[in-house]
Every structure is written in C-alpha cells, then in structure tokens.
Design brief:
With about 120 residues, this protein is mostly beta strands. The protein has no helices and ten strands. The protein has strands at about 5, 10-15, 20-25, 35-40, 45-50, 55-60, 70-75, 80-85, 90-100, 110-115. It has a six-stranded mixed sheet with strand order 2-10-9-4-5-6, with no helix packed on it. Strands 1-3-8-7 form a four-stranded antiparallel sheet, with no helix packed on it. Strand 7 (about 70-75) and strand 8 form a beta hairpin.
C-alpha cells in the first residue's frame, strides 16, 4: 500500500520560505518519478513540480520557477519542496504524488498559507 506523509506546511508572510517534506512508504521510492501538486479553494488541482527517479527536476509550473526547488533523497525515501519568496497566491494544500505526471496516489497534504 502506497503511503505518503507530507509535513512542513504553515503560515508565513509574503517573502518567507518553507520546506515541505514527504515521507514515502509501501513502494520502491527510488524507482518512481515523483511530483508535488497543490489545491487552492475554488481552483483545480495544479501540478507544481516533478522530479525523476534519479533526482533531476522535470517540471516547474511557470508561476514558481526560480522560487521553488524540488528534490529527493532516495536513501531516506523522502521528497522535498523548498519554497522561497512565497506569495499569497501560493496558498494551498500541497500534496506529494507518485509519478510524473502524477497517476493518483497522493498523501493527505500539508497546508501552506501566505499572508500579504
């Protein structure tokens, strides 16, 4: 059973930083591409970033390029999203997801709230 546990969200002011983490269980993490997606109230699910099994980034949505960095540690079965210069429009529930593009399995999410 795939289990993904996100953490690291919180409330910050615009311009602040957060690092999201995702602990992965129940599958061979090192053999799968991974993604971060987000969902804001009233919006559709948005793919934020993707990374291949070897650690090379595959994708960033235009709105986060230059501010967010996706990374992974296969030895720890962990996925990360470093978020700098956060903006109010980044406020959302963030989820890690298996595969790029994500194919369905994702965690319960961690909330990010950015105030202006």
């Amino acid at each position: 059973e795939v289990v993904l546990e996100e953490s690291g969200g919180g409330s910050v002011q615009a311009g602040g930083s957060l690092t999201l983490s995702c602990a992965a269980f129940g599958f061979t993490f090192s053999s799968r591409d991974m993604s971060w997606v987000r969902l804001a109230p009233g919006d559709e699910l948005e793919l934020v970033a993707g990374i291949n099994r070897g650690g090379a980034s595959l994708y960033y949505v235009d709105s986060v390029k230059g501010r967010f960095t996706i990374s992974r540690d296969n030895a720890k079965n962990a996925l990360y999203l470093q978020m700098n210069n956060l903006k109010p429009e980044d406020s959302a529930m963030y989820y890690c997801a298996v595969d790029y593009p994500p194919t369905g399995d994702r965690g319960h999410g961690t909330q990010v709230t950015v105030s202006s």
